[in-house]
Design brief:
Shape: elongated
Helix content: over 70%
Order of helices and strands: HHHHEEHH
Number of helices: 6
Protein name: ABC-type Mn/Zn transport systems, ATPase component
Strand content: under 5%
Largest sheet: 2 strands, antiparallel
């Protein structure tokens, strides 16, 4: 079996940044924005942080997808030959598509919030009573979505760990035998 170190690194580093950055922003940035003295600045602080994260996140996702596509191509023979690899790969692809969709939707909601300058807010995802209705609705959706993205990307991490286990020689042999036997 050929080594795919670069592809694994692209896959893992990109996914780690996507997961970790999104989780860190949900845990800290959205809450830290409420620490400013002026409620009118709370939304601005959160918007600046998320807007700075967006290009880094996009690059991380791109790096992850390049690594994922490369690993999928490199492991194509195993998809057919080793029992369980195709099912794992489909599950991982479905979770990746869901995470991409959630991330894109989160960015669209973030854009609605960001277009309001000096938006009053309680935190990055909690509107104030005086927050514009469109931005407030987007913030309420973001308050749930901020946890969905790390959950989905964390799920990809778990499936990736399982995929790594499937590549152990004993697992490859067992999977090949199971495929041949029935």
């Amino acid at each position: 079996m050929a080594r795919n170190t670069v592809l694994h690194a692209l896959h893992d580093v990109g996914l780690a940044a996507w997961f970790g950055g999104t989780l860190a922003n949900a845990v800290s940035l959205n809450q830290a924005a409420s620490a400013v003295d002026d409620p009118e600045s709370t939304g601005t602080v959160a918007n600046v942080g998320w807007n700075r994260w967006t290009p880094v996140n996009a690059a991380a996702i791109g790096v992850h997808l390049v690594g994922s596509a490369g690993l999928l191509a490199a492991n194509a023979p195993r998809l057919k030959a080793q029992q369980g690899v195709l099912a794992m790969s489909v599950a991982k692809t479905v979770l990746t598509a869901a995470a991409l969709g959630a991330t894109a939707y989160g960015r669209a909601l973030g854009a609605k919030v960001s277009k309001r300058q000096d938006m009053p807010a309680e935190s990055g995802t909690e509107p104030a009573e005086s927050t514009h209705s469109e931005a407030a609705a987007a913030q309420r959706q973001l308050s749930m979505l901020q946890w969905a993205i790390p959950a989905l990307t964390g799920g990809i991490e778990v499936i990736s760990a399982y995929a790594d286990e499937q590549q152990r020689a004993t697992e490859v042999h067992k999977g090949l035998l199971n495929r041949l036997m029935g």
